[in-house]
Amino acid sequence: MIKTLGYAAYKAKEALAPFTFERRAPRDHDVVIDIQYCGICHSDVHQARDEWGGSLFPMVPGHEIAGIVTQVGPAVTKYKVGDRVGVGCFVDSCRECDYCKQGLEQFCTQGMTATYNAVERDGKTLSQGGYSTTIVVDENYVLRIPDSLPLDAAAPLLCAGITLYSPLAHWKAGPGKKVAIIGMGGLGHMGVKLAHAMGAEVTVLSQSLRKEADGRRLGADHFHATSDEATFTKLAGTFDLIINTVSAPIDWNAYLGLLKVDGALVVVGVPEEQVPVGAFP
After folding, report:
1. What is the pLDDT of residues 155-206, one digit of tens each?
2. Residue pair 243/269 in contact by the 8 Å Cβ criterion
3. CATH number of this structure's domain 2-158
4. Of the chain's two ends, which shows fewer C-beta atoms within 10 Å, N or C?
5. Is the pTM of this model over 0.85?
């Protein structure tokens, strides 16, 4: 076993406190990672406060993990000691269902194993996350981080980054596509940078123009204030893809009017109760 130091929530709504626990010794396909950085996601706060229900304590949050491989199991083929790697939102799945076999382990019919606040495949051990010194993960659930990307900058990409990259890739954002990002907070600024890097024409739709300079610095081609009603008239039927990243209620009909006939509106990081039933096909 590997002695590990971390910060844990011992019960809901309590401040995190030092916590000592044991990680498993590496099995044949396991990678031992010395955690250098772990991003702070708002879902960590929700889970530690048990605001979504079902929280398991003691809980070491953290699922935006970046670090260095310090040990590998005897059958590991993808990584070696010294590699720069990351771990995201889940660390295992059944490996046998159709979803897992297609590389869609997040939809595992038996339930994927979350990086923390879950029970590992042995049915008894609580998974613990990245607010800790070390983590042990099967090599198939570890990601390589290139040398060109600093580990501290890479960590948030393991959740906030993929949350925006996934819809951009799915809807084929790129040259010739017009993409609008609603909001430019923690998720929104990722969307601006990624959409720009993919070659799309990027527009930020924000409540005000206060963040316009930052938006353009990150790659936005256009920046419009949604508090100005003329914005919705001017931009009607403009976008191939709109990604909403704001958690505040919005007028969905107004934003749907900004789409082209075959456009798509994607909602990320928004409470489910704020998305009207039947609003989207």
Report:
1. 999 999 999 999 999 999 999 999 999 999 989 999 999 999 999 999 999 9
2. no
3. 3.90.180.10
4. C
5. yes
